[in-house]
């Protein structure tokens, strides 16, 4: 464990503390104080006790933990939606993805985690308070280096004022995927189609069926096709062997997801057929000659 590593401390009651490791730090909790020097001795996977004797487990945080741990002043996307978005958009190392509507930065964080050091996330946020908050959350988990953040209204397009053609930090053109978490995504379909590569997947998050209807109507006249509309529900169970049953409460509807693909380039057309092969007069075999004719030619050549 080295300075700056992210660690997750879990109390006996399940309360979670996501922190960066600093050797001389002391964490104050309701169960007592934890010396990070003791955390270093125990290591990840171990446990450390507070000065009041309460044990805390020490874990390496997963992407799920990072997303759930962000500071928020907006409704964030839940991991159940984020996981499906990552798969549908094909997010992985080296991918260049555009996001509009940074919000608190939950999805931005997950995208940045999965594109790796060779990929890039281009995220746009119009409101200054959300732009600042999402930046703080990315900084807290050390992922700012994979993200180009723009305080920019996409009503004017996806090319920010600092845009330099061909610059991987400021030019999102020809992106591999795009996701919009904005109130009226149908207003930006033309701009979205212009900034992603042909055939690229795109996604949208919307809270109401009215908005979905308007988006679907607009997509009929857009270059996007292969449309999918869905919502994802997760029902948790009480993990008690003697009385296994669902939890009394569940987080049900949190948003609708819509996915599509850029229609791509014009359909490939097979070129005109090649001219027939020359006949025997040009010193080539007759294409209409049968097997017996071919053998006769071979016999004549032998004589």
Q: What does it look like?
A:
With 303 residues, the protein is an alpha/beta fold. It contains eight helices and 15 strands. The chain has helices at residues 36-42, 63-68, 79-88, 106-115, 128-141, 189-195, 209-219, 291-302, and strands at residues 6-10, 16-20, 26-29, 32-35, 47-49, 55-59, 96-100, 120-125, 147-151, 177-180, 201-206, 224-230, 237-238, 245-246, 256-262. The strands form four sheets. A seven-stranded mixed β-sheet has the order 9-8-7-10-11-15-12, with helices on both faces. Strands 2-1-6-5 form a four-stranded antiparallel β-sheet. The protein has a two-stranded antiparallel ribbon with strand order 3-4. Strand 8 (120-125), helix 5 (128-141) and strand 9 (147-151) form a beta-alpha-beta unit. The radius of gyration is 29 Å and the shape is elongated. The relative contact order is 0.09. The model is unreliable at 294-298 (pLDDT under 50).
Characteristics:
303 residues; 8 helices; seven-stranded mixed β-sheet; four-stranded antiparallel β-sheet; alpha/beta; 15 strands; 25% helix
